[in-house]
Amino acid sequence: MKKIKSMNAFERLKEIGLSDYEALVYLKLVIDGPSTAKEISESTEVPYTKVYEVLEGLERKGWIEISQGRPMRFKAKSPSEIVEIIKNEYQTRLNKIEDFLINELQSIYDVHSAEESEIWILKSPLGIMNKIRNMVKTFNKELYIVIGNFDVNIYSDVINEIERIDTNKNIKILLNENTFNFFSSTNKDNVIIKKALITIPFNVILSDREEVLFHLTIGLDKTSEERKNLAVHILDKSLAKVIREYIEFFWKIS
């Protein structure tokens, strides 16, 4: 028995769910071949009163076979067969876990996720610029940019980022007449630019990742040094849908 317990396989079998007695008995049968309950008990020191219970457990798991002669003899299934049994067991467990997680928990998670929204306030030009650049970098297929007031310190780098987007992504940019010239050098087939028919008093960036950024310039009647920036970045599915409808309306009439 000490020899069996010292084998690396003994610990590995316990790791995959066998008890000490089950691991001892299975290894005994692998090493010595078909054996009677008495022979198994003597060589493994599993009490004779327990050995039949252990053997029945291994048979239920599909690890051994029993001959119906007298006395009954027990034979280990080959390790390659055991591997397939374990694979099937784990696949069955995985299927049950997957079914539970997806069919029962995912719907609960989706409800709470849909109810949650994140709101962030940004005031520094650098913070606003980095957030807009990140939105340009990470949108999936479609991005709307509405600019009523062009701040060179914020949007010059954004224009450079737009020039680098993949051709399978689309950007629609709606501008006031006085900001249109800043984008005149942009020449990409997947970037469409329009002049708005009405004066736009703010800036909006809308990503198809359900995030919206409103950018307001406070103090338009003051010098550029006196003006202040305020941006609100919002992650909210419902709001993104509403903003998209408004932007598409102004896009169509422009």
Structure report:
It is a single chain. The protein is of the alpha+beta class. It folds into two domains: 2-77, Arc Repressor Mutant, subunit A (Orthogonal Bundle), CATH 1.10.10.10; 118-253, Endonuclease Chain A (Endonuclease, Chain A). 52% of the residues lie in helices and 21% in strands. It has a seven-stranded mixed β-sheet, sandwiched between helices. Strand 5, helix 8 and strand 6 (170-175) form a beta-alpha-beta unit.
Which helices and strands occur, and which strands form pairs?
Elements lengths: L1 H4 L2 H8 L4 H13 L2 E2 H8 L3 H14 L2 E4 L5 E4 L2 H37 L2 E5 L2 H14 L3 E6 L4 H12 L6 E6 L1 H4 L10 E5 L7 E5 L3 E8 L9 E8 L1 H17 L1
Parallel strand pairs: 5-6, 6-7
Antiparallel strand pairs: 1-3, 2-3, 4-10, 5-8, 8-9, 9-10
